[in-house]
C-alpha cells in the first residue's frame, strides 16, 4: 500500500492534484529575493498565497525576514512552526482575537495594524494583561479605498496614541497599492505606483517630523513589487504569490521574469463532442479569478468555463484528448486555488519529491 506520494511519477497521481514544479518555484524565489536584496529592501512574503509553514521556511532560507498573514489563526500556525517575525496585515478586532494576539507574543514577534482609534485601547489592554508588548503599524489608504487612514494627520494621531499606550509599540506604517496592479501600460502603472507610494512616504515624513520613528514602511504585492521596490523609503515588500507565477500575476499584472510553477493535474472524463472535452476539475479545485486557467501544454485548447466540478475545454482540430488523458492546468489565480486543497505536491524530474500540508488552509479567524 502506497502511504506517501513521494517518489510517485507525476503521471501516476490521482486527480485533481495540486502540483508545484520545484525547479521553477526555486527560480521564482531567487528572482524575487535577488530583486529585493539588490535594492536593500526586506522581503516579508504574504502567506495567504501559500498557506504552509514549509514554504515560509523555504522563503526564509532565501532571505525573507518573516511573513505577512491576514488572520490571527494564520499567525498561530506560522508561529507554531517556528516563523518568529510576522505581520498581520489586517485589523485585529474583538476580545478573543486580541487575547490570542497577545498570547502569541511569547512565541514570535507578531505585529498588527490599526486604522482607527477604537482599535488601539483593546490591543493595549490585551497586551498589558498578558504582560507583553505588541508592535503596531498604522495602515494608510494609498488609493485602494479599502482599509487605512485617509490622511497623514490621521496617521500621526494614531501613531501618537499607539506610542502613548502601555503594552503597544509603534513600529511604523503600512500601505497597499493594490489598485495599480492591473494597469496594462507599464509607464502608467509605474506612475500610479509612484503616486500611491508617495502618499505613504509623505505620511512617514509627517510622523517622523513629530519625533515618532517609523522603523517599518511596509507595502507592495507581487503585481507591483518590481516597481515598488525601486522607491527609496520602503523598508519591506509583502509580495508572496509571485513565487507561483499564475496567470493573474504574469498575464494580468505583467510580472516579468517569472515562470509558471503551480499547476493542477486533471483528467479528461468526458468527450461529449469532437471539439469539446470535460476535465475533472472545477471551481472547487481551481480559481478563475480575474483570468481563466489554461492548459499548460496546449495553447490552442482554451478552457471555456468552470462549473463546480467540471472544466469545459475546446479541443482544436488534430489534438488527441481521449478519456483518461491527464493534463496540467495553470490556475487563473494561485491564492484562491491554494485554499481549495489540503496539500501541494512538489515534483522534480517527473516524480514527487515533497508533500507539504497546507496547515493554514481554513484559518479564517
UniProtKB/TrEMBL annotation:
SUPFAM superfamilies: PLP-binding barrel. InterPro entries: Ala_racemase_N, D-amino_acid_metab_enzyme, D-ser_dehydrat-like_dom, D-ser_dehydrat-like_sf, PLP-binding_barrel. GO terms for molecular function: D-serine ammonia-lyase activity. It comes from the Bacteria. One of its GO terms (biological process) is D-serine catabolic process. Keywords: Lyase. The keyword Lyase applies. CDD domains: PLPDE_III_LS_D-TA. The keyword Lyase applies. Belongs to the DSD1 family. This is DSD1 family PLP-dependent enzyme. It comes from Singulisphaera sp. Ch08.
